[in-house]
Amino acid sequence: MGIHGLTKLIADVAPGAMKENDIKSYFGRKIAIDASMSIYQFLIAVRQDGNTLTSEDGETTSHLVGLFYRTIRMMENGIKPVYVFDGKPPQLKSGELAKRAERRVEAEKQLVAAEEAGEVENVEKFSKRLVRVTRQHNDECKRLLRLMGVPYVEAPCEAEASCAALVKAGKVFATATEDMDGLTFGTGVLLRHLTASEAKKLPIQEFHFTKLLEEIKLSHDEFIDLCILLGCDYCETIRGIGPKRAIELVRQYKRIEAILQHIDTKKYPVPDNWLYQEARQLFLKPEVVDTEEVDLKWNEPDEEGLVAFMVQEKQFNEDRIRNGVKKLLKSKQGTTQVRMDDFFKITGSITSAKRKQPEPKGSAKKKSKPAAGGKFKKGK
């Protein structure tokens, strides 16, 4: 879920903290990508006739199609991606996970009813609600990344927290995820829609954390309390307090403890045993990867290994896989150039970024990738 309503709130009260960019703007950038979120996107989006793609033996392959081709697309545009995989979920998230399980049970019932009624659109809708990223999906994606020569990091806990830690340590430029709690964890730059389908033509949304705090007039600690009031994965919210009221209260009273002393709890009932303090600590001091131990290397792709895995095991078309390898090799030659701003030490955060001249955008549109589906299978 991330942080409920945060994107709209930023657009309303801190528009200077967000902008839209083309993928070409990130040439030469190292970017930490929330792997589980991306894999979930691929499982939802890469489909044929409303169903996930499968190999001849019935195993799902949508996640491999998405990861292979969208990673190539990023690297063709000069991006150096590093995927960060979730570790164990924090104990505080157990309540949210239980709610998701309940929603899946309900979706299963609605799917059966839709199938019996022959409601095609509802069948597809409820099928997507049942999608979840499994250990097998993660393991297969890690294997694919190793063969492609793309680094990945296994986070001890939440991927977004470790992505933010990599940004803070200067290992990467930004966190790429659809969940806005990357900002709550303090990532300097957050990107949305980076791994979205090229066919959707979604501009990449870029959020700058320092500029956000400046425009929203809050400290990081106060911003965390605001996010808890808006709604996060780790605790409940105070019923009746929406985004506008939440930011007014945080600006006035600074901390949730003071807010609780001044609000009418009959009008705004506080949850029993509300774990907001524990949620705050999780955002302030999350369990993250040891960034000093992270050594990011983009290696040469293993062409024969990719053919063995993707063609022989997963029944992808061999010509397409070998063509993808050629693109990977070509992209590695292109990214040896250094960004002009990498020659300079940037002090401050957003003001320096504002002075930087925007990179020219190419006018020619890249050809869309062929639709997924059975075309990826061997012999088709």
Topology, pairings included?
Layout: H1 6-13, E1 18-21, E2 30-34, H2 35-45, E3 47-48, E4 51-52, H3 62-76, E5 80-85, H4 94-117, H5 120-129, H6 135-148, E6 152-154, H7 159-168, E7 174-176, H8 181-184, E8 189-192, E9 204-208, H9 209-216, H10 220-230, H11 243-253, H12 256-262, H13 276-284, H14 303-313, H15 318-334, H16 350-355
Quick structural gist:
This protein is an alpha/beta fold. The chain has helices at 6-13, 35-45, 62-76, 94-117, 120-129, 135-148, 159-168, 181-184, 209-216, 220-230, 243-253, 256-262, 276-284, 303-313, 318-334, 350-355; strands spanning 18-21, 30-34, 47-48, 51-52, 80-85, 152-154, 174-176, 189-192, 204-208. The strands form two sheets. It has a seven-stranded mixed sheet, with helices on both faces. A two-stranded antiparallel ribbon has the order 3-4.
Can you offer a commentary on this structure?
This protein has helices spanning 6-13, 35-45, 62-76, 94-117, 120-129, 135-148, 159-168, 181-184, 209-216, 220-230, 243-253, 256-262, 276-284, 303-313, 318-334, 350-355, and strands at residues 18-21, 30-34, 47-48, 51-52, 80-85, 152-154, 174-176, 189-192, 204-208. By secondary structure, the protein is of the alpha/beta class. The strands form two sheets. The chain has a seven-stranded mixed sheet with strand order 1-9-8-7-2-5-6, with helices on both faces.
